[in-house]
From TrEMBL:
Cited InterPro entries: AdhesinB, Bact_metal-bind_prot9, Lipoprotein_PsaA-like, ZnuA-like
SUPFAM superfamilies for this protein: Helical backbone' metal receptor
Single GO BP term: cell adhesion
Organism: Planosporangium flavigriseum
Highest taxon above the source species: Bacteria
UniProt cross-references to PROSITE patterns, sorted A to Z: PROKAR_LIPOPROTEIN
GO molecular function per UniProt: metal ion binding
Recorded family membership: Belongs to the bacterial solute-binding protein 9 family.
Protein name: Zinc ABC transporter substrate-binding protein
Segment forming the signal sequence: 1-24
Keywords per UniProt: Signal, Transport
Amino acid sequence: MIRSRPASLAATAAMATLTCLLTACGTGSSAGASGSGSDGKKQVTVAFYPLQFVTEQVGGDRVQVTNLVKPGAEPHDLELQPKQVADLGKADLVVYLRGFQPAVDDAVDQRAKQNSFDAAAVQSLQDAPAGGEDHGKDAHIWLDPTRLAAVADKVADRLAMIDSAHAADYRSRASTLRTKLEALDKEYTTGLAQCQRREIVTSHAAFGYLASRYKLTQIPITGLNPEEEPKPQHLTAVANQARHYKATTIFFETLVSPKVAETVAKEVGAKTEVLDPIEGIEEGSSEDYVSVMRSNLTKLRPALGCS
């Protein structure tokens, strides 16, 4: 009996080896091939749509992206469920923008300090324009395509760190995206070069980066929070500015009520039009960041009397 035990152990080991071969056990453990998902994809959680766009463009088929904000929902006042907070710690990477969604900032501090990337930390994004008088700092960096390209480059770097076997692919896709975004930037620069006016009256102080990039002046009706109720005296001041600059269009946005823009437009005899801050995309929409930016340009040009 004593002599038979090694043979039994050998047989057991041989059976285990055969089972392992048949079931391909351990195939996900090699460098560069592992990931949170069963298919080996890196699991990336993003805070809202523009970061989803960038991550999907850079990550390609190597990433599975989860957006914390549901399609068509307004991202500023996002409230996270306990499971969402807990899941941040399980993601391979969390991409967010500190200062834009307080609930996400808190959740990252609790669960994802080591596996997060703050898009606001990119060096070229530090000179944030003001969000309008007394409105603090604007966080809508993505409305300047060149700054979004800088974010894409850094996302590629972070993905390359956690999936080194595909580093070249991430950086190649980031380069392709940068080319698209730089082309979009040229469209804006050319399209807004010769205009009768350079002032845009907006319902929400979201367009500071866009205005700064293309030498426009933003006149916001409300502050950085689109749900903010403007004071009557501020509405009067905005209406007076709109008259002074002979504004023909008052811009409102998707995802929030157009009532304040309609109030000012009626007061000054202007029309209203959508200028999308691209904070989110409606569910089932065929649009993406680039197409919405181009749509915004087609609305800015006639509003500003551009030739």
